[in-house]
Write a structure and sequence with these properties.
This protein is of the alpha/beta class. It has nine helices and seven strands.
């Protein structure tokens, strides 16, 4: 069922995720209590100032729905000259990512708990990201749930807002119908060109699971044309 906007009374856009309580371990709970002040970015009334959030000016990469944080932390550790920002809704994943970040001694990672669409709309400054990563999002396979898929024309409009000129949208999925959907949505935008080869990346937990089930991995990267 679609949500009602409490202020307007109108139907709110469908979310691309379902909040799950999940089981939080003691270590993850400790991380959320003690490490969130180090890595977490809480809600505030205006857009983030990334130079203040990271304490420096550097290219920023955003990963949406980073799961347990394994891939995000490995990426941040491998590129200390780059700022990495992760958005996730589920507390166990946030807690696990915090523990990994602490173990790696990262200084170039910040996390946000919340809806990525709201982050892209309201919290990030325009033209602030060098790259946006979306790896193995929920494919919402049932036809009646296709409207919940994150990659839609409205999402492309948000990419236009937050990516800097020549910024890259890097996406991967192991669900063939969703791959076709993403390809169709991105092809419809003249603002983006598909790169011949996606940037290198680490395999994710969901990717390994999909590969074990025999799913073919589809991956693409789209560059925002400078004229936009």
């Amino acid at each position: 069922m679609d949500r009602l906007n409490s202020q307007t009374g109108q139907r709110a856009p469908p979310r691309s995720f379902v909040r799950r309580s999940g089981r939080i371990t003691r270590a993850q709970k400790r991380a959320l209590e003690q490490l969130w002040p180090v890595y977490g970015l809480d809600e505030f009334p205006q857009s983030l100032v990334l130079s203040q959030a990271f304490g420096r000016d550097a290219p920023t990469v955003l990963e949406i729905g980073f799961g347990n944080g394994e891939t995000l932390v490995r990426s941040a550790a491998a590129a200390p000259e780059v700022n990495f920002l992760g958005v996730e809704v589920h507390l166990p994943g946030l807690g696990r990512c915090l523990l990994l970040a602490e173990d790696a001694g990262l200084e170039n990672l910040r996390l946000i708990q919340g809806d990525a669409v709201e982050v892209l709309k309201k919290r990030l400054p325009p033209a602030s990201l060098a790259q946006l990563r979306l790896f193995f999002p929920d494919p919402w396979p049932r036809k009646r749930h296709h409207k919940r898929r994150l990659v839609q024309p409205a999402f492309v409009a948000l990419l236009l807002r937050v990516l800097e000129p020549d910024g890259v949208f890097h996406v991967a999925t192991d669900w063939a119908p969703y791959a076709e959907h993403i390809s169709s949505v991105m092809k419809a935008s003249t603002a983006f060109e598909r790169l011949s080869r996606p940037p290198s990346r680490n395999a994710t937990k969901f990717e390994r699971r999909g590969s074990a089930l025999g799913h073919e991995i589809w991956e693409a990267a789209y560059r925002l044309r400078p004229s936009y």
